[in-house]
Write a structure and sequence with these properties.
By secondary structure, this protein is an alpha/beta fold. It folds into two domains: 182 residues, FAD/NAD(P)-binding domain (3-Layer(bba) Sandwich), CATH 3.50.50.60; 163 residues, FAD/NAD(P)-binding domain, CATH 3.50.50.60. It has eleven helices and 23 strands. Helix 1 packs parallel to helix 9. The structure holds flavin-adenine dinucleotide (FAD). Flavin-adenine dinucleotide binds next to helix 1, helix 2 and helix 9.
Length: 422
Amino acid sequence: MADTHYQVLIIGGGTAGIMTAAQLKRKKHDLTIGLVEPSKDHWYQPAWTLVGAGTFDMGATRRDEADQIPQGVDWVQDYAETFQPEKDQVTLRSGKSITYDHLVVCPGIKLDIDAMPGLREALETDVVCSNYIDPEKTLRVLKNFKGGNAVFTQPATPIKCGGAPQKAVYLADEYLRKSGVRDKTKLVFATPGSVIFGVEPFRFALEDVVRKKQIILKTFYKPVRIDPVRKEIHFEWSKPGDNNCVINEEQGLQEKIEGQSTIVMPYDMLHLAPPQSAPDFVRNSPLAYAEGANKGWLEVDVNTLQHKRFPNIFGLGDAAALPTAKTGAAIRKQAPVVVANILHRIQNGALSTERYEGYSSCPLVTGYGKMLLAEFKYDNVRDSDPLLSRFFDTSKPLWSMWVLKKYVLPWLYWNRMMKGAM
Ligand SMILES: Cc1cc2nc3c(=O)[nH]c(=O)nc-3n(C[C@H](O)[C@H](O)[C@H](O)COP(=O)(O)OP(=O)(O)OC[C@H]3O[C@@H](n4cnc5c(N)ncnc54)[C@H](O)[C@@H]3O)c2cc1C
């Protein structure tokens, strides 16, 4: 016997969970909704990039989760542990179980620190940092940096906000110019990809930024291991079908090649986006893909967000297997689809006509006071907001977009999105 039953049970009270709960309640106030969320804190993560560059207060990115739970929604402060979809039931860490008519799964993404040997130890040193883990430390590392190799990396796994690692390097460039050590610095951005950004025309604008800032762009560099004692990061050359890695000694980075395809780069400071994966309890559940490229992520239809095998289950946010960038901006377009589909199913047993077309956006901060707003959908097709595009050329770094990022979006997040109003 389950302990409680809800018409809608939501797993995860981050961006996706709160947005979905708030929109459902606004549209149908008598719905019984339970929301399982262990944390007492709710974080506005998009501002962590700015915290790492000393231009946003970390404290302002946190609010009490209790204040975000929409009125009339039951907050179950616990961890979801296992799913029993054949019984429409979720079991919690406390041992309690909850049944549902509809389930929404959105517990975010796991920072998989142990997937990279040496990373955990390296993070304990004074020169290795990550805006994903502790953006205030990024600022301390930048402050203490006296020159040498400043290395910024992108992992090969899916990550939340795929643009965040390069935003960190653009802001570091300006920070180091201001602190007077940029001319003693080799600033490196190393990515396993073949280009700086996958969507045109933003790619060209960003290539221009990289050139002007004299950032050393290393493509096909997949970070695999850190040696915190020797202060070296190991990359695997990731160019498909080509085992012969290339280093350019003239860049003066003191790189070495080991074996056929490992490049060892010394660092004086290192910023990482750590490898990331679906949360373990999702990955090991019947709701995840068991095989293939999406293994471990929620098996949902990419347009309806309905689970492919359990029609009363929906998934969205970072944990879902959707071939687009994992961002809060994407969730803003996903949540209304989940909400419409659940309400239609409750009313007449069928899905609504709402579809998610893969919209996501990446506010690429390219310096203090400059931002380029990359908006796109599935297949890397540009999808810029028509209204914004009438007034601004969002394919270029603009001061107006910086104002949007630093002031407007945080306000909209707390006051509109978390309230189900957009
Ligand atoms: C440095 C950085 C910069 C970013 N920049 C941007 C940006 O500029 N623009 C943008 O749109 N997005 C950005 N993002 C990404 C954005 O923050 C995420 O995509 C978004 O928060 C994902 O929402 P979510 O609800 O899927 O996950 P989250 O918001 O992470 O919430 C997941 C929730 O699930 C809970 N949970 C975990 N395990 C369990 C469990 N077992 N049971 C129940 N609940 C559980 C967690 O406690 C958490 O509250 C950035 C992220 C980072 C880290």
